[in-house]
Design a protein that fits this description.
The complex is a heterodimer. By secondary structure, chain A is α+β, with helices and mostly antiparallel strands. Chain A has 2 domains: about 150 residues, Rossmann fold; about 270 residues, Neuraminidase, CATH 2.120.10. In chain A, about 15% of the residues lie in helices and about 40% in strands. In chain A, strands 1, 2, 3, 4, 5 and 6 form a 6-stranded mixed beta sheet that branches. A 4-stranded antiparallel beta sheet of chain A has the order 9-8-7-30, with no helix packed on it. In chain A, strands 10-11-12-13 form a 4-stranded antiparallel beta sheet, with no helix packed on it. In chain A, helix 3 crosses helix 6. The longest helix of chain A is centred in the first third of the chain and has 20 residues. The radius of gyration of chain A is 24 Å and the shape is globular. By secondary structure, chain B is of the alpha+beta class. Chain B has 2 domains: about 25 residues; about 120 residues, 2-Layer Sandwich (60s Ribosomal Protein L30, Chain: A). Chain B has 4 helices and 9 strands. In chain B, strands 6-9-7-8 form a 4-stranded mixed beta sheet. A 3-stranded antiparallel beta sheet of chain B has the order 1-2-3. In chain B, helix 2 crosses helix 3. The radius of gyration of chain B is 19 Å and the shape is globular. The chains are: A alpha+beta, B alpha+beta. The interface between A and B is large, with 48 and 31 residues.
């Protein structure tokens, strides 16, 4: 009996303690109807550091710039409403040491982010604090040092920390997107591999556009990319090391290989191999080079994607007569159809949380991005459009990025391809800024965890 | 045959014809059903030998017209035994990219199989799929899509 009472006491204590620390809470399960108002104060920079960063980075005020990165991230998430800095009453340096909570409450900020930037041994040192304005206290403080060129990443890491503290879930801001940059006429489109930060900055092109490239996907450590290239007019799956730029063909297949993805441990590539009008799914072990045939069916089997534990594979097959989504064990056994709604289903991708599969659906001339449970129940369509496909999950499984194409007239005018993102709830649909037209996005995992 | 039976048969034929006309494929200008039947994008390997065949949405079945085109190609290939060909399979833009790559491959192979049944060696034919990557008509309308669902026979040498 005494034991039971003791247990209850502990529970209450933890409950109260938890509550005391989470006066501000952001409910991420219901979308963005009431984004949390907060203030991102410009980070304060001393005069000396400011001048040095001005030389190094050609930025007028690095403190302001980093806070803009944070502010933009928070706004894009749809869960937060960063207030206009013009309304801020307190100076950045004082706010960081001792915020006057009444001033911040006055402009309706519920949380406040402050910080300080310094140059230390030619490096960037950033300290930031998150304050609960209503409770009048600090709820998080962190500092990190990095090379100064990484200043945008500092903004992303701050956002990840704030997001995690306020929502209880990991962020997705210190991440990159790999995609296909598109230019030129629809009939002779030029396509290049491109990589950028999640917020559209720091775009780099990884191929020159001499050959058609499609469907790039990251490995779990974000150092390698697998994609389809028409190099020498032979469509094959390739592996690219982002740092060294080295590329190689995956396997020695006497025909087209396509639709590649990494296994969750990064050791295998799973893909389709088409021969004599039949596409089946294969894996290749990157170390032993061993090739294994996973499906064996006269239908089209493609778009394979592993479950995060590596035990299952979802894929696209037309064995029923039309494109549908199937799940099987990773050895190819126990194949089971899971999509049964009206229309055609394609591009299944397993959520990083393991509980959902995102897909593209074509029904009555419209394209949808949707999600369903891994047994096919609970189908939810998030967005409808003229053409859109190929969802990719943010590493925390809260957001999907995909691409959307617009209609063109008979001369091809009006055509565009752009990246879009949408929250799992179906709210917060946004175009993702890219330098050129873009398609086939793939989200990296968190660069720093 | 009793009068009754004749009457019944007539009725049957009558209903069958109604049913047939309802099922009959709609022909509108350059399409039959949704298979392209026009000549807009067609090029010729030789006089009277069209270079391409067209498919219905999501289909890889060769139509009567396609088979006729391929028989002409086969006879031209028999006469020009030094020429090899590449069959380029394509899909329209109304499908997911990866599935369309497979579909284009299957279409080109449907054409290849037919050429082979008419005596052309498989060694002379290679196949490549472009999925939806290389449309010939950039429009976003059913006629444009019908032109893009195709397998094109191209000289390889």
């Amino acid at each position: 009996m005494r034991k039971i009472i003791f247990l209850i006491y502990i529970c209450i204590f933890i409950f109260n303690w938890g509550k005391a620390w989470s006066l501000i809470e952001v409910d991420i399960t219901r979308g963005n109807l009431n984004p949390l108002p907060l203030a991102v104060s410009p980070l304060s920079v001393d005069k000396n550091s400011k001048e040095k960063f001005k030389d190094l980075l050609k930025l007028e005020d690095i403190g302001v710039e980093i806070s803009k990165v944070v502010e933009n991230n928070l706004r894009q998430s749809g869960l937060f409403n960063p207030l206009d800095p013009k309304a801020f009453l307190q100076k950045p340096d004082i706010a960081h040491v001792k915020p006057r909570f009444e001033d911040w409450a006055l402009i309706k900020a519920q949380a406040l982010i402050t910080g300080e930037v310094k140059i230390v041994d030619e490096k960037l040192r950033v300290e930031f604090r998150l304050w609960d304005v209503l409770a009048g206290k600090e709820i998080m403080a962190l500092a990190f040092t990095t090379v100064s060129e990484n200043w945008r990443r500092v903004g992303h890491i701050i956002t990840d920390k704030v997001y995690q503290r306020l929502t209880g879930e990991k962020g997705y801001f210190d991440t990159r997107i790999i995609y296909v940059a598109e230019e030129g006429l629809k009939t002779s489109r030029i396509k290049k591999l491109a990589i950028m930060d999640q917020d559209g900055f720091n775009t780099k092109y990884l191929t020159l556009g001499n050959e058609l490239v499609l469907t790039p996907r990251f490995n779990p450590t974000n150092q390698m990319v697998t994609y389809l290239s028409y190099f020498k007019n032979l469509p094959r799956v390739y592996l690219l090391d982002i740092e060294t730029g080295l590329q190689e063909v995956v396997g020695d297949f006497p025909g087209m290989t396509f639709a590649p993805r990494f296994s969750p441990d990064g050791k295998k590539i799973i893909m389709s191999f088409a021969k004599d009008g039949n596409s089946d799914i294969y894996t290749m072990d990157l170390e032993s080079r061993e090739v294994e045939k996973i499906t064996n069916h006269p239908s089209i089997d493609t778009s394979p994607s592993y479950s995060p534990d590596g035990k299952y594979i979802c894929f696209n097959s037309d064995r029923s007569g039309y494109q549908q989504i199937y799940v099987m064990r990773s050895d190819g056994s126990k194949v089971k159809r899971i999509s049964f709604g009206n229309g055609l289903y394609g591009t299944p991708v397993w959520s990083p949380r393991g509980d959902l599969i995102a897909f593209t659906k074509l029904h009555k001339g419209k394209f949808y991005i949707g999600v369903m449970r891994t047994d096919g129940t609970g189908e939810r369509l998030l967005t409808e459009n003229y053409y859109q496909e190929a969802p990719s999950w943010s590493p925390n499984g809260r957001v999907l990025i995909f691409y959307r194409e617009t209609k063109s007239d008979s001369a091809g005018k009006g055509f565009s391809a752009k990246l879009w993102s949408i929250d799992l709830t179906g709210y917060n649909e946004r175009m993702v800024k890219t330098e050129t037209d873009a398609s086939d996005p793939s989200w990296s995992s968190l660069l720093t965890d | 045959m009793s009068l009754n039976k004749i009457f019944r048969n007539t009725l049957l034929v009558f209903f069958a014809s109604i049913l047939l006309s309802a099922c009959a494929v709609k022909t509108t200008g350059k399409m039959q059903g949704d298979v392209y039947t026009g000549k807009d994008t067609v090029e010729y390997l030789a006089s009277g030998v069209p270079d391409r065949v067209f498919f219905a949405t999501n289909e890889t079945v060769l139509t009567t017209a396609s088979r006729e085109t391929l028989r002409k190609q086969a006879s031209w290939l028999r006469k020009n035994s030094k020429i090899n060909v590449v069959l380029e399979g394509h899909a329209d833009e109304r499908g997911t990219r990866e599935y369309n790559l497979a579909l284009g491959e299957r279409r080109a192979n449907a054409a290849k199989d037919y050429l082979m049944t008419y005596g052309i060696s498989g060694n002379r034919i290679s196949v490549i799929s472009y999925g939806k990557e290389r449309p010939v008509d950039s429009g976003s309308n059913p006629l444009a899509w019908s032109k893009n669902r195709r397998s094109v026979t191209v000289k390889a040498n």
